[in-house]
Amino acid sequence: MTYLSVVPLQAGPLDPVFGPLYWFLEVWSDFMSAMARATGLELLQYGFMHRAILVGLCIGVMAPLIGTFLVHRQLALIGDALAHTAFAGVAVGLFLNAVIDLGISPYLTAVVVAMIAALFIELISEATDAYNDVSMAIVLSTGFALGTTLISINAGGLAVGVNQYLFGNLSTVSNDSAAILLALFVIIIGMVALTRNQLLYVTFDETAAAVSGLSVRWYNRIMVLLTAMVVVGAMQIMGVILVAAMLVVPVAGASQVSRSFNESILVSVVLAELAVILGIGVSYYAEATAGGVIVLLAVAIYVAAVVLGKLQTALGEETTPEMGSIDVSEAKQSDD
């Protein structure tokens, strides 16, 4: 593994734009400090843990929210493809900082590169009529190749520890990167709130959505762009290698016990938050990598959900729905 010197993650010229988010981070830190005094919990006494917990809570909402649409569209692997291109975006940011002293956060370049890659996935599928998994494989390979090439060039003394981007790290969640995550969180929640009905219709019946006049291509592009934002946001503590798990595993667990699309979203958010909070706590006290612990806990919760679903079936309750078979009446009702 290549080790490079750490470049500060600063938003620089974008600081005025993120001003309200920095204010919110201060308020959140004061709240967590008060919680530390009230509970005596050691992990709540440190500023980096305040930011890590806030980032984790946001990931626990936005990852399963977008993941529910992806899983039911059989696009579960797109998170992996975009995570590898986000790694290329980090490498681009580090490269530019080293060569021309741009002073930009690598997470911002990761957002830009991941969103461009997300559009390429859709454009390749549209232009070549190839299946989505083909375009995802091409983009994944290209992104990771670009990232490893830029790092190996080592131009201008480019030197950054890439482990924090590959595996995530609680202690590296700075104010700047937390502010970027909060901005992405607001955009994602806002976009889903505005386009929820259309995305739901396209998810369950593209043909009917197209016949009804919806621009399926544009809503597909919106979905992959939102996925790219989630991937970059979650990459801070999950790492490139494990970030896709939060898009899929909680949703897979929720689908075992849910009977509607809305219920699936709510249950998957609860399961994701449970995995994130427990994972951050366990990784802090066990001094383990947070991303790995969170994913292991999410998988354990998924197994428990599968067992619970089987028990419901054995006890004569409704049969556990298969992936993609969640009640589609919501989509049709929303279109009406």
TrEMBL record:
The keyword Nuclease does not apply. SUPFAM superfamilies: ABC transporter involved in vitamin B12 uptake, BtuC. Keywords: Membrane, Plasmid, Transmembrane, Transmembrane helix. The keyword Zinc-finger does not apply. It comes from the Archaea. InterPro entries: ABC_BtuC-like, ABC_TroCD. CDD domains: TM_ABC_iron-siderophores_like. The chain crosses the membrane at residues 52-75, 81-100, 107-125, 137-166, 178-195, 222-253, 265-286, 292-311. It is found in: Membrane. GO terms for cellular component: ATP-binding cassette (ABC) transporter complex. Belongs to the ABC-3 integral membrane protein family. This is Metal ABC transporter permease. It comes from Natrinema versiforme.
